[in-house]
Design a protein that fits this description.
Number of strands: 0
Helix content: over 70%
Structural class: mainly alpha
Radius of gyration: 17 Å
């Protein structure tokens, strides 16, 4: 098992749970705007799912190619930062009514591409793995 992936997955999952708890309890105190709340919930949902993806990458690492697993991990982490991170920032900017920060919406799809890339690399890691006989 890849201890780095498992450690990072645990940290990212803990942060996702904390972010979800804040969204469920604290965010409603800051805004009643359903669009802002939905944006935040999307960030938390993808954050948590990709923390699980990191966990899977670590647990299944003995069954895949190390180099592809490594790049899958890097893609998942980059996706978490770009996708969920940009949505968390967008939520903050909307609550603070900072309207001049429109560039942030261009980072979110880059995060989505990183997520897709991570899944493809993880799949290739297992599909191309040659087991010793």
């Amino acid at each position: 098992m890849d201890k780095v992936n498992l450690f990072l997955a645990s940290i990212f999952a803990a942060i996702a749970v904390a972010a979800g708890a804040f969204g469920a309890h604290g965010l409603q105190q800051l805004t009643k705007d359903p669009a802002i709340i939905q944006t935040y919930q999307t960030a938390v949902q993808y954050h948590f799912w990709h923390a699980i993806a990191l966990l899977l990458t670590g647990l299944l690492s003995p069954h895949g190619q190390a180099k592809l697993n490594y790049w899958a991990r890097q893609s998942f982490i980059s996706g978490l930062v770009c996708f969920s991170g940009s949505l968390y920032l967008l939520t903050y900017f909307r609550i603070q009514q900072i309207l001049t920060v429109k560039w942030i919406v261009f980072i979110t799809p880059i995060g989505g591409i990183f997520f897709i890339t991570g899944w493809v690399l993880l799949g290739l890691s297992f599909a191309t793995f040659k087991q010793a006989n």
